[in-house]
């Protein structure tokens, strides 16, 4: 047995593994700032796109500084808290949202000490919610921008929804995904799907939060359902992704209901005082 030869081969392979690992680690560390910048620019471009501002990699940050005049964080009561909305990581906040839904469901099923424990946990998690929101000011008006995130068929979906100064009417919407089916669910980021969201209302005539409903096409379309105020048509063949987007909008936008209602009421009060 050639022990010396085997030892040499083992040592050579070990050294090569260490060298390659060191090179990959060095490359990853050096590329991290660039990757983080790319993620930041992509996020900025999406925020701007939700209010109809086209941008490039080169001018996105400048346009953001020009048009985004406020960047803040709200709590579950709609009150401003410390921090910047841009820095809030959406995934942990969405995880809290799902935990809140699960706790509410549990509270409805249990009683006694178990119910009290669930209620205390619900209050704790709700108090930890961080809701980022942005304010944009352009020549044609002022808008608020709300980020949304949820689950599609194959992975996360996300987007930004901008509202007009009435804090009710959608001014623009932009969506994206990680791995939805091409030609089907992946079309949530197509302009033909995003465009119909413009002009839809979040609140009903009685002031209750209705959100945006997603209807299947054909006989079940928004038009045939008589819901042109709150409804849009789903993507044909992308039902699961469309329903995931519907859940995302309902869950995420409803979290801002206290803030939006407070703003709407303050606008009404201002009009009354003005008149």
Describe the protein in words.
The chain is of the alpha+beta class and 275 residues long. The chain has one domain (64-274). Helices cover 46% and strands 18% of the residues. It is built from seven helices and eight strands; from the N terminus they run ααββααββββαββαα. It has helices at residues 3-49, 60-67, 90-107, 112-127, 191-194, 239-254, 257-274; strands spanning 68-74, 80-81, 131-138, 141-151, 156-163, 170-177, 213-215, 231-233. The strands form two sheets. The protein has a six-stranded antiparallel beta sheet. A two-stranded parallel sheet has the order 7-8. It starts with a helix and ends with a helix.
Please summarize what this structure is.
The protein is an alpha+beta fold.
> How much strand?
15-25%
Low-confidence stretches: none
Largest sheet: 6 strands, antiparallel
> Averaging pLDDT over every residue, what do you get?
88
Listing every helix as H and every strand as E from the N terminus to the C terminus, the arrangement reads HHEEHHEEEEHEEHH
| Rounded radius of gyration (Å) | 24 Å
Essential attributes:
two-stranded parallel sheet; 275 residues; six-stranded antiparallel beta sheet; 8 strands
């Amino acid at each position: 047995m050639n022990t010396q030869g085997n030892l040499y081969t083992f040592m050579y392979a070990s050294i090569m593994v260490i060298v390659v690992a060191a090179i990959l680690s060095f490359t990853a560390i050096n590329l991290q700032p660039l990757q983080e910048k790319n993620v930041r620019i992509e996020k900025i471009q999406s925020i701007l796109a939700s209010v109809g501002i086209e941008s490039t990699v080169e001018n996105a940050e400048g346009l953001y500084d020009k048009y985004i005049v406020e960047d803040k964080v709200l709590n579950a009561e709609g009150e401003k808290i410390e921090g910047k909305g841009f820095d809030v990581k959406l995934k942990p906040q969405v995880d809290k949202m799902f935990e809140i839904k699960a706790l509410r469901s549990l509270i409805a099923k249990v009683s006694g000490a178990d119910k009290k424990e669930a209620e205390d946990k619900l209050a704790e998690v709700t108090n930890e919610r961080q809701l980022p929101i942005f304010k944009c000011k352009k020549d044609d008006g002022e808008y608020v921008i709300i980020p949304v995130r949820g689950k599609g068929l194959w992975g996360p979906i996300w987007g930004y929804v901008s509202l007009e100064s009435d804090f009710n009417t959608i001014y623009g919407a932009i969506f994206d995904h990680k791995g939805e089916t091409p030609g089907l669910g992946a079309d949530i980021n197509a302009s033909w799907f995003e465009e119909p969201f413009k002009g839809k209302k979040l609140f009903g005539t009685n002031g209750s939060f209705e959100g945006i409903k997603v209807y299947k096409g054909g006989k079940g379309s928004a038009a045939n359902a008589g819901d042109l105020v709150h409804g849009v048509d789903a993507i044909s063949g992308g039902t699961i992704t469309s329903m995931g987007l519907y859940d995302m909008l309902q869950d995420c936008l409803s979290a801002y209901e206290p803030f939006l209602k407070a703003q709407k009421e303050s606008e009404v009060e201002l009009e009354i005082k003005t008149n």
